[in-house]
Amino acid sequence: MVRLPPRACVVGLGANLGSPVETFRSALTALRRQVQVVEISALYRSAALGPPQPDYLNAALLLELRSDPLELLALLGRLEQRHGRLRRERWGPRTLDLDILWIGGSALDSPTLTVPHPRLTERAFALLPLLELVPDAIEPASGRPYTKYLPAVKHQEIERLGEPWN
Predict the structure, then answer these.
(1) Distances from the Cα of 120 to the Cαs of 25, 29, 84, 149, 161, in angstroms?
(2) Is residue 68 annotated as a catalytic residue, yes or no?
(3) Catalytic residue among 55, 68, 97, 136
(4) CA 144 to CA 161: how far, in whole Å?
(5) Is 32 labeled as catalytic in the residue annotation?
(6) For residue 28, what pLDDT band results from cuts at 50, 70 and 90?
(7) How far is CA 149 from the centre of its chain?
(8) CB atoms within 10 A of CB 44
């Protein structure tokens, strides 16, 4: 198990258009130029939520947060745009989705960013990669370990892919 950095932050990646693995690699390369990437989860495949569309690939990155979370959010938004992200419909298909899922057990609620991600405990495709990187992660509002939320998502179809992607 990886030792958590002082300001641990987990960012979720998702994509179902184009070549998601290549997009993830490109985004990772760009991120490594600006943030400290500590660990990378495996890839996961899951059915899409929302309108009919291809399955998603998801993963997560454990980062050392060295700036304000809103600066990281802005960086992630620029990376999404650089990789062709268009926001046409809620839960629609996308070339790249980057979400701040969790920051060291702390909470943040601003007009532009809510951490932990508001639907983290409801989505296996975000929860499983987070727990792969930080198995003892705690939900800050309740103080409950995120592992306690796994039964609520066990009905969601998700497949952990054994292939490395980085």
Answers:
(1) 23, 25, 25, 9, 20
(2) no
(3) 97
(4) 28
(5) no
(6) very high
(7) 17
(8) 21
- The catalytic position among 87, 94, 109, 123 is 94
Those residues whose C-beta lies under 8 Å from the C-beta of residue 126, and which sit 6 or more positions away, are 12, 58, 60, 99, 101, 117, 119, 120
Is 144 marked active-site?
Answer: no
pLDDT reported for residue 87? 63
Q: Quick check: 50 and 92 in contact, CB under 8 A?
A: yes
- In angstroms, the CA 118 to CA 158 distance is 20
User: Is 85 annotated as catalytic?
Assistant: yes
Q: Render pLDDT for 82-140 as a digit per residue (tens, 0 to 9).
A: 877 666 666 668 889 999 999 997 898 999 998 899 999 999 999 999 999 999 999 99
Q: Spot the catalytic one: 7, 45, 66, 85.
A: 85
SS3 state of residue 67: coil
Q: Which of 32, 45, 99, 160 is catalytic?
A: 99
pTM over cut 0.85: yes
